[in-house]
Recover the amino acids of this structure.
């Protein structure tokens, strides 16, 4: 359960002053307050010890119930075992009765009986004896609690073991109850550690003794008039302390109202006032707007695997350049002006075709000798290969440039996603800083309430001093 700061301060005030300014006649009651609080705290611990003891008893009782169910199952299993043995004996007896009605011609006087195989009167008698012995053995084991059964989740158990578990649990419950009564039962309470009732009963007794001693001093007239928690005070000294406390309260309130109080928070990582935090929010908002504009304008710088650091406008320029390159290649290829490295050297399609035409004309010359014809035939073959290679190379050039263009176009499409974490971080920081604004009044409330509580303490103490 969460308790508000106001509630905590109210409890402290009630513990110190009983809700009213203490006067001279109440000084004894004020001095009794810490003792009463000690007694109340001790009673709280005693109540928690009792609660935990009862919870432990309930826990052990639940296990007793479980072991009791195991015991019932073991008893039921024993009953089934005895029933099974009785049925076996009855079957043997009926087999012997049947055998006595049958004719027997074999030398060993045996007949085959359903469920028993080959038997004679002697073997059936031996079976009956063995079954009776088995029954008596199991009856003795069951009666003594030594019969062992396998129970799911319990494993192999005997009645003696089960009863031992139940007896042990019952003894633990008895020990707990006795320990609670005599104060020797020990338990663990978070924040306090291992405790037992006797210690806290002793604290209560000691506090009651101190209270009785104070009452005796009052009765005997030996009680010294001092302010509990402050010691001896004069009116002048106390009023000076009150004035200083009033100034401190006013200073803290003014500082909180002006937003000039520093706090330290993991989000800001240093000391910062409320005004500084608001300025930081404003600067962050400006930076957010600038960043959003740079993203929209393509000026936001990203890091991508394919490029490293870059901007969208740079990538768009790259795509545009690639588109222009593709168009130029396509136009050159279609116009026969695309130049490539071929068997003829760096030539265009037009130049290769002109070479073919020139060779054809030269070959038509009847005066051309054999050696010249062979040379021109090789050149024609190169020219024909050059035409094919120019077409293949231009197609490849178009392909790789198109692939490059598609790659960068895809990168551009995913750029906004890369900026998302930056947007989210800025949104998260802004949201946390906006929430952090509430920390200032909350933290200052603690500081102011402490100063106010001290001031009220001094004012209440003033009532104890005449004049």
């Amino acid at each position: 359960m969460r308790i508000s700061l106001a509630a905590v301060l109210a409890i402290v005030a009630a513990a110190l002053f009983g809700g009213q300014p203490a006067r001279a006649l109440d000084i004894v009651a004020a001095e009794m307050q810490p003792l009463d609080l000690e007694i109340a705290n001790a009673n709280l611990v005693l109540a928690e010890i009792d609660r935990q003891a009862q919870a432990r008893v309930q826990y052990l009782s639940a296990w007793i119930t479980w072991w009791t169910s195991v015991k019932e199952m073991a008893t039921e299993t024993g009953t089934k075992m005895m029933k099974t043995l009785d049925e076996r004996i009855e079957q043997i007896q009926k087999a012997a009765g049947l055998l006595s009605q049958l004719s027997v011609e074999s030398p060993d006087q045996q007949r085959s009986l359903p469920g028993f195989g080959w038997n004679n009167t002697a073997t059936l008698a031996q079976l009956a004896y063995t079954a009776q012995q088995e029954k008596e053995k199991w009856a003795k084991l069951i009666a003594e609690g030594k019969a062992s059964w396998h129970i799911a989740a319990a494993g192999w158990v005997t009645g003696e073991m089960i009863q031992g578990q139940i007896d042990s649990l019952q003894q633990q419950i008895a020990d707990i109850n006795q320990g609670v009564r005599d104060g020797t039962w020990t338990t663990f309470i978070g924040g306090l550690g291992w405790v037992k009732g006797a210690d806290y009963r002793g604290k209560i007794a000691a506090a009651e003794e101190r209270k009785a001693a104070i009452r005796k001093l009052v009765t005997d007239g030996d009680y010294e008039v001092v302010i509990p928690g402050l010691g001896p005070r004069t009116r002048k000294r106390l009023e000076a302390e009150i004035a200083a406390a009033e100034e401190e309260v006013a200073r803290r309130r003014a500082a909180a109202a002006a937003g000039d109080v520093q706090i330290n928070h993991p989000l800001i990582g240093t000391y910062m006032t409320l005004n500084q935090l608001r300025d930081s929010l404003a600067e962050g908002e400006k930076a957010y707007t600038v960043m959003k504009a740079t993203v929209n304008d393509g000026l936001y710088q990203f890091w991508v695997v394919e490029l490293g650091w870059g901007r969208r406008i740079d990538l768009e320029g790259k795509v545009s350049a690639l588109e222009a390159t593709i168009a130029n290649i396509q136009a050159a290829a279609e116009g026969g002006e695309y130049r490539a490295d071929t068997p003829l050297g760096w030539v265009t399609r037009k130049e290769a075709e002109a070479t073919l035409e020139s060779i054809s004309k030269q070959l038509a010359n009847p005066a051309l000798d054999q050696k010249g014809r062979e040379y021109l035939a090789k050149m024609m073959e190169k020219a024909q290969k050059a035409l094919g290679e120019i077409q293949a190379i231009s197609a490849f050039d178009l392909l790789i440039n198109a692939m490059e263009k598609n790659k960068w176009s895809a990168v551009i499409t995913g750029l906004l996603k890369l900026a998302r974490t930056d947007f989210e971080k800025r949104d998260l920081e802004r949201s946390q800083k906006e929430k952090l604004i509430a920390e200032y009044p909350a933290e200052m409330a603690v500081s102011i309430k402490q100063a106010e509580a001290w001031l009220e303490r001094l004012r209440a103490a003033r009532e104890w001093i005449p004049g």
Q: What stands out?
A: The first strand starts at residue 111 and ends at 113. DSSP finds eleven helices and twelve strands in the chain. The mean pLDDT is 82.
